[in-house]
What we know:
By secondary structure, this protein is mainly alpha-helical. The chain folds into 2 domains: 6-208; 234-379, Arc Repressor Mutant, subunit A (Orthogonal Bundle). It is 68% helix and 0% strand. The protein has helices spanning 6-24, 28-54, 57-79, 96-107, 109-112, 116-135, 150-181, 186-208, 234-237, 240-257, 267-274, 278-289, 293-311, 316-322, 328-339, 343-349, 369-379. The longest helix has 32 residues, at 150-181. The termini are far apart.
Amino acid sequence: MFEIPLPFVVALLLAILLVRLTLRGPAGPVGRSMRIFVAASLALVIMVGLRWQFDLLIFRFLRPLFAAMLPPIAWMCFAALGAEERSQTRWRWLHVIPVLAIFIAILTWRQWHIQVDFLIAVQFTGYGIALMVLASRGEDRFAQARLGDVGSVRGIVAVVGGALIFSGLVDGLIALDFSITQGTNVATIVGTAQLVVLVVLALLMVRLERFSPQTTKLTDSVTEPAFAQRKDDPQDNNDIAEDDAILTAIDEVMCAQHLYRDPDLTLDRLARRVVIPARQISGAINRRFGRNVSQVVNEYRVAEAQMLLRTTDKPVTEIMFDCGFQTKSNFNREFGRVTGMGPRAYRDADPNPDQSTPDQTTPDQPFGPIRKLFSENARS
Length: 380
């Protein structure tokens, strides 16, 4: 009976995932990073299958070399999603050092008997921990991801980091098995690890379903800002007046250009429009609102949705798209978070909104969260 080795089954699933990412996955830097990582993982899994299926000298040499290249690729793919990471390309050559060290260990194995699998285990674990830390950071570390997708991107980075840590433990077990039993249990260890990889792939597929296709062409055009660029000084960020100046600049751009209507809006693009570093924007919003940038942008969208629900007969779904939402679940969740009810119930209730103020002079200018914050502060 013909049987397909488990590594090649995993390779087939990775190939399907790569095709799915190419045809229906997120566009822009996020999609590119994910495609590169999956392609590198596919090459490694194929090499693992060839190594244990045919046990040729060339595959023994290439398998650890392919493995050594995966963690730096993963880090460079996902760390590059931060707005500030693009200015740090001059340091990327440092990621060559661990790969070079493992390459030298492979070449000199007969002379020095260095445990190559142990070195790979340390490398995988280190990069995995680094990715887990990256996933726990703020929105500015994923400034090139769409604001609505930041949570899913962070989840994927955490899954990739966990997978690298797990792979490091597997390589450590392989090195230990070779040193104790001359590799008697390696096949069992590799097979069990591949089954876990199948579960990880399933998790990634579930995460990918939370992405929606990019609908607009990204542009980096910058208009004259209402707020001059400031240096990224932590002491300035602690000043309420400084934070309010940043919020004022954001509100003016939001109201004048209706950036919140763009479903593909990213923190990086918002930072370019107001010419303020992404970290300062994220910090000011977090300190003044206690929420993240995505939530505040969604509050602009909800404010306009409330206005359209009150003043027009447009279908709810059309209003959802007009305001910048792309999925009904996200629209309903955010609308309920802001108003305490669903959009249909809001329209049926025909409430007399408490956000009506003299600042809201035209239907095209919904009273956004920043002006509402300033208004509440002025009354208190």
